[in-house]
């Protein structure tokens, strides 16, 4: 439900249900013995809710990692002068800029190409051994999960920093030009040049993006593993 790609709304619900049943059937023989509780008791309900919360929190690490690319695209869109286009987009209502969706799809494909989804499922299996059923949720390092929300901004800013600096140089150039030649229509010239420079920045960003994003994927998976008591 929460894991990127595997729980995407574009995948039919039947496929997701069959995938969940298949993964459960495959990993069930490898799990440690479950606590002896009545299946229809209140304690069983508490354990089920506990496992759901742990699963949601583990998947949240991956969701934050994928949305780094969305925030990266949003930062570049704002620097390119696409803020008005984002606000007037009838398909998303300004919630998801087109560059953000593009980079998010690119990051998802990179994550799948690196077999990150297989590593995530392996961490899910290990979580039953490192954090057995019944140990509770509040003893988990929840502050580490909260710190990932600041990590998403730092990681996206790190990816977007070269493009932001390049666009800043362009804006400073047109600012000096407007002071040197006040009669020149800087807006008519500046917006197309900012857009062209932004597209060039997007083009050149793809040269080093796979290497940097693979490091972010490794960092997110390591944090996900350490969250359940594993050692990096």
Describe the structure.
The protein has 232 residues and is mainly alpha-helical. The chain has one domain. 74% of the residues lie in helices and 0% in strands. The protein is elongated and about 80 Å long. The two termini are 27 Å apart. Its main location: membrane. Pfam families: Bac_export_1. Belongs to the FliR/MopE/SpaR family. Role in flagellar biosynthesis.
Helix-strand layout with pairing:
Layout: H1 13-27, H2 42-80, H3 83-87, H4 98-113, H5 116-130, H6 142-180, H7 186-227
Helix pairs in contact: 2-4, 2-6, 2-7, 5-7, 6-7
**Record field, number of beta strands:** 0
> From the alpha-carbon coordinates, what is the Rg to the nearest angstrom?
23 Å
* Number of helical stretches of at least 4 residues: 7
Number of domains: 1
By helix and strand content, what is the structural category? Answer: mainly alpha
Spans of at least 5 consecutive residues whose pLDDT stays below 50 are none
Helix content: over 70%
- Shape category: elongated
The main pleated sheet reads as: none
Strand-residue fraction? under 5%
Q: Compute the average pLDDT.
A: 82
Order of helices and strands: HHHHHHH
Cα distance, first to last residue? 27 Å
């Amino acid at each position: 439900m929460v894991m990127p790609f595997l729980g995407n709304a574009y995948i039919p619900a039947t496929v997701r249900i069959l995938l969940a049943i298949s993964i459960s059937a495959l990993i069930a023989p490898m799990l440690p013995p479950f606590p002896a509780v009545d299946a229809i008791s209140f304690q069983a309900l508490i354990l089920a809710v506990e496992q759901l919360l742990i699963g949601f929190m583990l998947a949240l690490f991956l969701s934050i990692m994928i949305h780094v690319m969305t925030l990266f695209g949003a930062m570049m869109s704002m620097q390119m002068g696409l803020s008005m286009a984002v606000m007037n987009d009838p398909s998303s209502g300004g919630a998801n800029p087109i560059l953000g969706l593009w980079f998010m799809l690119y990051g998802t494909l990179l994550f799948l190409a690196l077999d990150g989804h297989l590593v995530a499922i392996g961490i899910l299996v290990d979580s039953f051994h490192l954090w057995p059923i019944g140990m509770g949720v509040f003893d988990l390092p929840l502050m580490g999960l909260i710190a990932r929300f600041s990590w998403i901004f730092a990681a996206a800013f790190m990816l977007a920093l070269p493009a932001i600096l390049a666009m800043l140089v362009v804006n400073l150039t047109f600012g000096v030009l407007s002071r040197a030649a006040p009669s020149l229509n800087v807006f008519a010239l500046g917006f197309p040049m900012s857009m062209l420079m932004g597209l060039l920045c997007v083009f050149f960003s793809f040269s080093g993006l796979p290497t940097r994003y693979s490091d972010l994927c490794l960092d997110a998976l390591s944090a996900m593993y350490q969250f359940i008591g594993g050692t990096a």
